[in-house]
Amino acid sequence: MSEQEKFDAIVLGAGPAGSACAYTLAKAGKSVILIERGDSPGSKNVTGGRLYTYALNMLDPEIVKEAALERIVTQEDIMMLSGDKALIIKYQDPSFGNPEEYPHSCTVLRAKFDGWLAGKAEEMGAFLACGIKVDELIEENGKIVGVKAGEDEMYADVVIAADGVNSLIGQKAGLIEEKRTHLGVGVKEIIELPAKVIEERFNLEENEGAARVILGCTEGIHGGGFLYTNRESISLGCVFLPEEAAQKGKSVHELFQDFKMNPAIYNLLKEGKTVEYGAHLVCEAGYRGIPKKLYREGLLLIGEAAGFVINTGYSIRGIDLAIVSGIAAAKAVISSEKTADVGPVYLRELETTELIPTMKAVDGYFNILDTEWLYDKVPNLAVDIFGSLFTVTGKTPESIKKLAFGAIKNHDLTLWELAKFAIKGVRSL
């Protein structure tokens, strides 16, 4: 196409960030092309599979009820594993599934959800082009004016990169370093089970869902596990730091299979059929993983390309932040008369939508999650203490204080280490 035939915006990546951005732009009457490298939206995307639905409501309240969602999460679990023993902290809140306007959060399957959201962007007038790999940016006088895909060139007032954690476009533009730090490898399986079986095993009502984060499943490696219930399947995954897995002499796949076969996990999956297996890089740095610059003239970074992921240890967020960042970028394009103004307006929109303030607010969790012995000694200690409390031998039981001190010593911890950890936690949070 010629420069005279340019779009108002080119959006790269039809994940939640890109599709939300294209939807908002098209709804405002902008000409926009949404380019997806995969054969279809969602075909290349891997996440745990949970969406906090305020983001969809922010996008358009009219589409929340028709969204391709799986189950409404009414049950939050934190699980600690130690060998074949498990400790589960459970929080149940039926009101999460029955608010006046929309559910608090839902599980999603990316192939379905991403396809649905990209389809809504098309309905608004966005042009969706799949199976296209964008190789280069087109730059004129320091400004990004378009993209190259093979021999084809496409031009636009602004290019919006939603091409994931290893954003090639961000790297080409000089906004992202080629080797990002604090990257984990996420491995995930989707395991089919009948709806009634899922509801029985997790004590759920019809359409209710459970979300579980798991500590102690990584053999001491920085990382953790997650489990989400879908309508007729379970999403099970683990995130590891790959360099630590290499030091263990095990592949990420082997570590994941060991986790999957733990009795506390396997009993939830047995008789199920694995229908999908995938792996994905995950930025574990939170606020500290956001690039120093999120834009150049003619180019914006959104979603995972911008580092918008939160892991607090008890919740993992990415899809909602992706959608919000896409909305913020679109609003910046819509409200800016000059291309040079889009970047600064985008940053203001990220503040107004409370995305950046939210990431700042939980930044301290990074310090806590960076504690090495959190991933083996803490779950082992917690499980042992509770195991002692529930064990009856016929002998005079020890005091809880003595049990706790004994368990601390048995796991090569000291009161001073625990005190320092508590102090770090208070300062961080």
Automatic annotation (TrEMBL):
The keyword rRNA processing does not apply. It holds the Pfam family ETF-QO_FixC_C. Keywords: FAD, Flavoprotein, Oxidoreductase. Residues 184-280 form the ETF-QO/FixC ubiquinone-binding domain. Residues 7-180 form the FAD-binding domain. It comes from the Bacteria. The keyword Flavoprotein applies. GO terms for molecular function: FAD binding; oxidoreductase activity. Residues 372-428 form the FixC-like C-terminal domain. Its cofactor is FAD. Belongs to the ETF-QO/FixC family. This is FAD dependent oxidoreductase.
